[in-house]
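Session log. Operator J.P. requested a structure for one protein chain; no other inputs attached. Running the standard single-chain path with token output.
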Amino acid sequence: MTLELDGHSLTLTDLADYLGHPSDVRLGASARSAMETSAANVTKILTRGEAVYGINTGFGALASKRIADGDLATLQYNLVRSHAAGVGDPLADTVVRLMLILKANGLATGYSGARPALAEATLALANASVMPNIPERGSVGASGDLAPLAHLALALIGEGEATQKGKPLHNAEVMRAAGLEPLVLQPKEGLALLNGTQLSTALAILGLIRGERLLGSAVVAGALSVEALAGSHAPFDEHIHNARGQHGQSIVAAAFRRLLEKSEIWRNHENCDRVQDPYSTRCQPQVLGAVWDTLAHAAAVLEREANGATDNPLVFEDRIISGGNFHAEPIAMVSDFMAIALAEVGSIAERRIDTFMRGINPALPAFLAHTPGLESGFMLAHVTAAALASENKTLAHPASVDTISTSAGQEDHVSMGPWAGHKLQRIADNVARIIAIELVVAAAALDMQRPLKAGAKLEAVHERIRAIVPPASADRRHDRDIAALAECIEAGDIARRLPTDAWQTPLA
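Structure written below.
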């Protein structure tokens, strides 16, 4: 299946599907026409002899320096070379793929003054799985993600590095591996490649896609914990959630009701004298529902950004206007918001793990050890979850409240959007492992409820866990089990077990 870009209608679902199953991406006819018109407008406006930022002037604090007509192409090459100042490890291929698609779609809006050849070259790299080597650090998320995008541009002009299925590529062989010769830049085109929020947006979108899977997995794991703890089903009653009217809360509660239905365990204890469960169990719809709402808000912002013109200056029919669409503040803020939300997913899951350790259900032995004292059970698995949850609390400190002046004070307020996105990825890593620990622990506790069974949906989840983590009758190492289940969570296998008739994706 081919994904066609027109600069206006790319959806987050398109991107999630593309990352799961990369396919050919091409530039649509309407986008090609818009880009041709935009490039022609640059030529037309330059013939007037006007000073136009970044086309016949210097950049940043050097904007007052006028450039001779004969040096306009050299100016674009100098921009790319001088701005390739990134440091750190190369970005993951998944992030680079997203950057390539987002950059092409941004150019396709027809406001950058760039020829279709630039977008087509960018897509050629993605289609051939040629991933430019882009250092992960060096952008403050304003004036565009300049350093990372400069390294992408180096690959396009035959002066960068890339890998193709593990094979290193250098200079001109990068584009030749994608079936093209290196680009020859024209006025405005180097700046068009460098200006934009594509790194900030790619990290945020990846965090959102991962966040959706983690939220779904947390609902499944939380429901399994309710059963394994012999918890009450009453807190998920729809009357409670209708009385409050929060959208995400109602969606999450409905998913819990479907997961918990037809449970032998619940029927066995429905008349017990335990009045209320701890908050980490009974307040799951309220907490995870707030996460759902946060992800839905982020999705709306990010889908707009994926289809927006984040270049500067922007090219219109009769003039070129300098502005600030490159400022990644909207992306930085939603990345921070998602980081806070996912940290809470991990925090409340860690609290549920703790309830298994300290006998909330008196039928369960301490730490779920078969012989407490001789064995430690899941004592240290919980400590690991606690360590990760605590780490997330530091990582969730907002990046977007920071700023630092650059370019001799010309660029005196920045978003720190890339750092917000990098922190979001680290939090997602930690949350996947916390949920994995909850699944391991809840599955062991469910085994101790036998011969009683949970409902069919949760028994299927238990069966999937047991296919990865066999039951143990004595102490065993937990690290490999946690890693295997975290991989399963990241692949979406646990979230896919949500009842489709009671779950809505926040990406839509």
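Operator note: The domain at 3-196 is CATH 1.10.275.10 (Fumarase C; Chain B, domain 1).
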